């Protein structure tokens, strides 16, 4: 199986965990020491922090939100043996409002399979307007 196919599968599992509101499954796709930076600059350090913050979001502000699975056009760029840069369109939808983003990840090979070691989300549209920035 190609690295691109494996990474697309990892992105699909990320969307599935988000759509299920499952913070544990979502965080499990990250390394223990992952860095997670949101569109507004919040920085979570480590899988436990990612799980905790997403549990609050899935139970509160983002309850019922959905994330689209990747469409296969994610850029997967090798960085070193067992490490790739992933750049993809992203975004979520809540109550009919789509929040488009471009997201980047560093993915690394681990004994458990590929996991995300870092994440950065940058919004490409303003919430409530659908307008590009």
Automatic annotation (TrEMBL):
<dbReference type="InterPro" id="IPR032710">
    <property type="entry name" value="NTF2-like_dom_sf"/>
</dbReference>
<dbReference type="Pfam" id="PF14534">
    <property type="entry name" value="DUF4440"/>
</dbReference>
<feature type="domain" description="DUF4440">
    <location>
        <begin position="7"/>
        <end position="107"/>
    </location>
</feature>
<protein>
    <submittedName>
        <fullName>Uncharacterized protein (TIGR02246 family)</fullName>
    </submittedName>
</protein>
<dbReference type="InterPro" id="IPR027843">
    <property type="entry name" value="DUF4440"/>
</dbReference>
<dbReference type="InterPro" id="IPR011944">
    <property type="entry name" value="Steroid_delta5-4_isomerase"/>
</dbReference>
């Amino acid at each position: 199986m190609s690295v691109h196919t494996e990474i697309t599968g990892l992105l699909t599992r990320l969307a599935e965990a988000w759509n299920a509101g499952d913070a544990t499954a979502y965080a499990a796709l990250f390394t223990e020491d992952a860095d997670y930076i949101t569109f507004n600059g919040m920085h979570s350090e480590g899988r436990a922090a990612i799980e905790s913050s997403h549990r609050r979001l899935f139970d509160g502000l983002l309850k019922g939100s959905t994330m689209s699975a990747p469409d296969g056009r994610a850029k997967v760029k090798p960085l070193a043996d067992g490490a790739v840069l992933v750049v993809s369109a992203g975004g979520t939808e809540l109550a009919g409002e789509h929040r488009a983003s471009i997201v980047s990840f560093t993915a690394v090979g681990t004994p458990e399979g590929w996991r995300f070691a870092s994440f950065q989300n940058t919004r490409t549209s303003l919430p409530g307007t659908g307008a590009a920035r």
